[in-house]
Design a protein that fits this description.
By secondary structure, this protein is α+β, with helices and mostly antiparallel strands. Helices cover 29% and strands 32% of the residues. A seven-stranded antiparallel β-sheet has the order 2-1-5-6-7-4-3. Strand 1 and strand 2 form a beta hairpin.
Amino acid sequence: MPTKQGSLDLLNDPIAQELLFAPIPAHLSYVWTDGSPRVVPITFTWTGKELVTGTPHNAPKLKALKDGTKVAVTIDSYTQPFRVLYIRGIARVSPYDGIVPEWAMAGERISGKEGGKDFVELIEGMVKAGVIKFIRLAVQPTWVGILDFEKRFPSGIEKGLEAMMMAK
């Protein structure tokens, strides 16, 4: 029997671990200042306790994201069987002197060692010139869910499967 949806223990599930360390972006969702929903792709590093990225101080999302803001993140596989990790949590936003190390690590994971290094060097030049400052953006999980379309399905399908089993 799979761990119940919502449990933070799901972060230790092999599917969650695969997605947390895969060379793919996550999608961060939040509510914009006018109440409309927003979703943006982010690179990230999973620290074992929080999902961390860096963002320039002038990024539009920081108009809506403040320390303590409720957010959601999805990490989706792009091949079958499709797998999805859902994380609901609290944003932790804090200024950072220099490049956020977890953001640099995420760049290497997604773009490869050379590609990540080249991009970080470009951004470091902007930081040293005082053009941008970095903000450390972390998501502290409060709820976790997994869909694997093998053992775990969307709740509506699971309810339908249960109803079919009861009818037999």
